[in-house]
Amino acid sequence: MLPAKSKYFTLSDLVETDPRYASAKAQLSPYERGSDEYLLKLMELCPLSHYPSYEEYLAQQAAPVPDSAEAGYGPIYRNVLSPEKQVSCFDISLPSFYHHFLLSTRLWPKNDCLGVRPLDPTTGKYKDHYEFESYERIEERSRHLGSGIMSLVNVKRCKPLNTNDFTVAVLSHNSLEWVLTDLACQAYSLTNTALYDTLGPETSEYIMNLTTAPALLFAKQTISRVISILRNLKYVNTLICIDDLSDQELHVLNTSLLSKRHNTRGEEISFHCLSQVEKIGEITQIPTSPPNLESIYTISFTSGTTGLPKGVSIPQRNATAGLAGALSIFDRGATGDTFMKEICFLPLAHILQRQFLSFDLSTGGALGFLHEPHPMNLVEDLKILKPEYVVLVPRILTRFEAAIKQALERLGIKKEAYESLLSHSPSASPPDATGAKSPDTTAFHQNLIRKTRNLLGLDNCKFLLTGSAPVSVETLKFLGSALGVQLRQGYGLTESFAGMCFGESPDIETGSVGPTSLTCELRLKSVNFMGYDATKGKGEVQMRGPQIFSGYFKRPEETKNAIDDEGWFSTGDVAEIDERGLLRVVDRVKNFFKMSQGEYIAPEKVENIYISSCPLVSQVFAYGDSYRSYLVGVVGIDEEAVKGTLGQKHGSLTPLKGEELVFAINNNVTIKKDLLRLLNSSCDNLQGFEKLHNIHVGIEPLTVEKDLITPTFKIKRSKASKFFEETLTRLYDEGSLIRDERL
User: Fold this and answer.
1) Rounded Cα distance, 14 and 81, in Å
2) pTM of full prediction above 0.70
3) Rounded CA gap, 334 and 286, in Å?
């Protein structure tokens, strides 16, 4: 039978009650439970994976609950660190991420907290160092900002200044001010939400109106976008630019550029800059009202479906559980007065970076930001910040791999030589007949590691963490050896506050994403129509526990479809679990997939937009390899329309018919580029990551006779993928025809 839903307890309860952690409990005994000294010592005793030994943990990381399997389902798996109950938070005295941040502020008030590269006003260039604000300064500023937002919004709503029944929206790249806003919202139990540059103005309007957000904080570079959507925002009354604005700029914004003066509730609309709002808050000094476990921390909108995105309501209990899970298996890396630094690279609008933001600010760590929001700046800033760890998506890791290989070849090291040398790390090198490692090989390898680390700014790096999309095992093995760092792969969703599985570095060769966290339990569900039988070890991943969300914002039907009566959330991911309890994702249940940069693609939406927007095509099969960052496709063309359009520039096409025309297009990159440019220019409703980067054309490539479409013209995706396998591989080998793949 399925066991009753387990009661939760805290990580400190686990250590105090489980005999396996007796040595840790003994070291905690001098301190009053719940005191700052006790909590600091408990952090120092983590990760729990070292009790009683790390080797034991590696041997068995998650285990099935006896007699928990049911018809159509595999057994329930729990992490061996806490097999009886799931952990809901670090300690009962820390019911929110904000309480963890306050603890860090008390323990390490002078520690570096958030840092940026300053801009030299004389040269207009960024300086080659980071300047940080301390924990106590960031805490003070967050209170002032929160008080200022509360004052401005509530005065316009004619409500008491301490009313916190509204949502704050953020439209910005990663920045110190983004995190400051996040902390300000938490200080006053305000829910926040993020708008996405990649999803277009319609989505921003939808999120703003659905959440009825009266406050929008935005970066200066997005002012024109804010002005363009303002007319359609029903509830906004306070617009705050996180960058400095002159008095003249603010005057222009509040007069000639303000497209409307009042919202639909009759409340006045006004522009401000962040420094103004902080000054207002410093004057009003509204007392803080920190959140509890059930306070909604954020509403994170996912791009994982066709149409408008769903908002995942994430209470603080999800965040504290995710944080407790991370603390249980990651070393906080603090030694004496030295604390870890991270570069904030992944978008804060996505939940994985938020999870590790909470990890950083709960352990006294420092977070640095890119000097300008573009991936091309990553290596430059890594070389200056020299962080101890970085969270990256797979496509950045593959670019690191390419950069290292190019550098090695420039040094005159042949491919065969470095592949042989890097086939295993120095620490794992087998001894020779005398029991000693080869000093020359080890010394050369260590020198190589120093050079490759320096090349990418990873001189001090202890580990790299990746998630959000699959990554090649060969890439992980190569980087682990070339950089001499731990590589860890995670798995999770917005609905699980990002990572609920994290693999250990020694397990990268398995291709797994690790076991379920001690904050969540999981099982597999049979997917009969796809041939997956959970009783045989493969099925759809279901999860439940304190780290799992409880509903979609204002979407009760969607919530009901996703979470069953026993609390199991169906992820849509198909996976297998090995004998050590490690999860490996192998497929998707639904017709959308994730690219290497973490973006979800709904292929039916993409195909429908191409067909409805461009008269040159009659069929489109969009395909994405999850190890790649772009789409390719098989396209059915309208013969006469294509000749009429392309024939003006490429006259040789005009007399061709049928397969001759198809052959001419497919075998001429210039013609294919021109056709692709025409197709993409007609699809204004597609984002860049949704557009095709290379194509193979045919007159009617998808037919019922080939069993590639149904009689109602729906594509049979698995069969189409197999049928066009060689073609799709060739398109990826040929590469993107619309952009250059560079680091």
Assistant:
1) 9
2) yes
3) 35
